[in-house]
Design brief:
The complex is a heterodimer of chains A (about 325) and B (about 300). By secondary structure, chain A is mainly α. Helix content of chain A is about 70%, strand content about 0%. Chain A has two domains: about 1-70, no CATH class; about 80-310, MetI-like fold. Classes of the chains: A mainly alpha (about 325), B mainly alpha (about 300). At the A-B interface, helix 1, helix 2, helix 6, helix 7 and helix 9 of A face helix 1, helix 2, helix 4, helix 5 and helix 6 of B.
Chain lengths: ~325, ~300
Amino acid sequence: MATASATPKAPKQYGYWGKLLADILRDRWLYLLMLPGIALIFIFRYIPMYDLRIAFMEYNAFAPAESEWVGFGQFIDLFTKPKFGQVLGNTLYIAILKMVIGFPIPIILALMMNEMRNLKFKKVAQTLLYLPYFISWVIMAGLIMNFLDPTNGIITSLLKGITGQDMQVLTDKGAFVPMLVISDIYKGMGWGTIIYFAALSGVDPQLYEAASIDGAKRFKQLLHVTIPAIMPTVIIMLILNCNNILNAGFDQIFMLYSAPVYEVADIIDTYVYRLGIQKTSYSFSTAAGMFKSVIALILIVSVNFVAKKSGNEGVW
Amino acid sequence: MAKPTIDIAAGEIQRENRIKTSVGEKCFTVFNYTFFTLLCLIMLYPFWHVLMQSLSSTEQALRGGIFLYPKDFSIGTYQSVFKNPQIYNGFATTIFVTAIGSTLGTLLTAMTAYPLSKSRLRGSKIIMFLVLFTMIFSAGMIPNYLLIRSLGLYDSRWALILPGMVSAYNCILMKNFFLSIPEALEESARIDGANDMRIFFSIILPLSKATIATIMLFNAVMYWNDYFSAVLYIRDVDKWPLQTVLRQMLTNTQQAMQQAGVNVRQQSDANAVTIKAASIVVATVPILIVYPFVQKHFVKGVMIGGVKG
């Protein structure tokens, strides 16, 4: 056993296949180690990918073998449905709104936090700030429903005081999406701040010293040392965010939406759930889900490509 | 803020600048601390409010106006919440799923990531790509659902555990960490006659305690917070995890009250507010208790090293 690894290369006469076999034999324990993990990934990630074929069928849940192939029929159905246009529009609108408004906030918070000198305060603030990130959307939604309760919610009465009218945010088509954006930022901003803050704490203090010797004040130091230092992180976060452009936040919306706001809040994932799981039209909803996954894949690959071409670090 | 300094009369201007910026800086510092204090209060207040509501009498809670302290202090609500067997079942499932999923999942992740950190391993590049690919492409809800059904895992707690056990993201994190362990350590063990399996379990794993703890915590949070898997895969209400039970209570008031043994007709909507509030508190408290002790590991997790594959 032990001596196998002492001869890293098989003698030449075995040729390519012999060497391959020898290498595999040498590393047999490593293959054995990764077997369960790879098996899980294969079963739970790759078999469903094979099952995407039902998007090209009229899937028969009772007799799967008798399902008929319909080519792109489900997709044509999907794209000609006005409902799908609305769902896609909602998804993009909510996701982009969350991204545009939510993306800079953690950066600004991290920069502000970086200017604080009191270490204890900084630590406590950090800890409290990212607390909501670890709270499930169920509990968050419970809090939101509580604060927006039509009769005794704190925010409801606050809004009544300001606008003078009874606002029922959770069933109001105009207010629902802003509520989604705000609560999403509330939940995620602390975590985002930590990510940038980690990047900031990696900045070599000598850079600041050098800058201050050159006469740079705090603001100039921010511009010329701090911001360039977190740019790689910003780019990576941006790329990862692009992957989410069709993820408007299923867990959040699924907890909070109701029939009165379907028109503005129904996103691809919720649509897939209602059609697929509740109405069991498996093929059609698989097609809708697959459309989403494919677009997301194309997006992240191209954004990563552009980032790398323009001299930045990509995600891979 | 800082004006550019000009060579002529540089001293003068610089002094002026210093005074100006220091006043500006002071203002900024005051603003900064005030801002973050307020922000922290905003983060905490919702939990406090719900706690106070749950400790108030039903009539007061319904009337509203509970801000900082309970009105008509009562713990009656908690008594009825804890009469609900679903809460216990929920806790049991959640603890089972979280414990198994996070420990076993982390171990399997480490076992998968370690070989992938060895460039000499034949096929490691292809396998790495296949792992990475699952991060940027997924089949989606319906194929996953059909898979669980065809594996016979429907209505089993394992359906909540197995699919998320080994994630590409954690795999990459671990792999990056293993890359940072000096090769020499393994070489010396190899000379002493240890095989790769032994090297992994008796040298690499003990060295990786901190990273493993971090990933385990991330996994634990994921499992603890997951409510949707059970919505998809579990019909038997008794096997639901806590979050799914809570979701049911929040979105379906009447049922929640019946389960809590409250006579629906008599009390109408009255109890809903306090029961919901108390349920939120019950589900949140375990997290709030462990949070201060584990939160520094999360921060460490961020530092471990990005997503670079």
